[in-house]
Amino acid sequence: MNKRLLFFIGLALVPVVALGIIFPDRAFDGVKDTDDSIYISNTGADIVVFVSKDCPHCKDLKEYAKLQEWEIEYHEITEVETQKLFAKLQERALGLNQGVPTTIINQNVIQGYKSHETTGQLMNFLLKRCQDSNEGCQPFNEFLESDIHVEVQSSEGICEDGCEVDLDKYVFDLPILGKVDLTLMSLPALSVLLGFLDGFNPCAMWVLITLLTLLISTKDMKKVWVIGGTFLFVSGAVYYFFIAAWLNAFLLIGYNLWVQKIIGIVAIGGGGFYFYEAFGKNPNECQVTNMSQRQKTIAKMKEVMKISAWPAMIIGVAILAFSVNLIELVCTAGLPAVFTQILAFNDVSIIARYSYMALYILLYMIDDFMIFAIAVYTLHATGLTSKYARFTLVFGGFLMYALGILLIFAPEALTFG
Hints:
By secondary structure, this protein is α/β, with parallel strands linked by helices.
């Protein structure tokens, strides 16, 4: 492998290793004894508790809950999404201050945990009462969405320190764009941004430019539209199925902290590769294909142009687009992996997931659409300038680096409501 490429990737990984040494609890948060882990039930539970891993009263509550064999839905108060959820709870519970543990059982809100004999017995009573009733226990989400207002039942044993989230750690000061707050982003915005950055890759762009040059030289605009359009359509379809495969692989694996952190490391390495693409060589040159491979590809294009039958010509250019985009996957595997990993651990519908992928592909193809439109309008095929290509690579490198850091140390910042 190129020594300069190894240097850029290694340089990008240095701060990650340093952060892992300084904050080992964040680097491997969640990979610990299951008795101490924080989980959120997928089915919903009759008891919902807001806790903090540093609060001794929360540990007492969890100890009692374990003895009672209760199913509890825990929410770690230091996570961004939990803060939003707690804010909604404060709208329903009058006088609820920022503090843990905060317990919700069938519209009853208890803040604090004094002892097993007091608060524990109260929880036991409230739970048994609603479970034995004809209506059952009201789901927590249903309580939040109602217009009910309840009084808070206060107890001794409240941890008020460390309950605030430092949202500044999710704000990055990026070149050109300035400060970017990732907590204000959404999945559509992330789909647009990552798809746009992923599209600027020289490995398939030179093929499109060469193909358009050959088509324009025939002075047959029908060929330009049909053959060029087929190439673009197949390119987008191949990439769509590729990221769909990534997504389904992550959904099959499920939420796995180790996989998430491995993808984070891949993202950091991808950021280093982007910096290498920007500064280690000409950003408009693809290093995956050598000159002999390019000559073979151009020869295939010329053979396709000689075919007189339209169906055979369309099939030929479709095969060409498929093979070229398989090569491009080698260059751009990092961004789709990061995007689909984020998409997989967000709780959205199947239709929404595939819609976000379609939005990603639309922005991924936007540079190709621009080149095609310019070629049709000016009858001259041209690519992007090296200066613009270098800018997108540098920005992409910083973004990949930021996403990698978040996937390893603060994945909750990438969980969107």
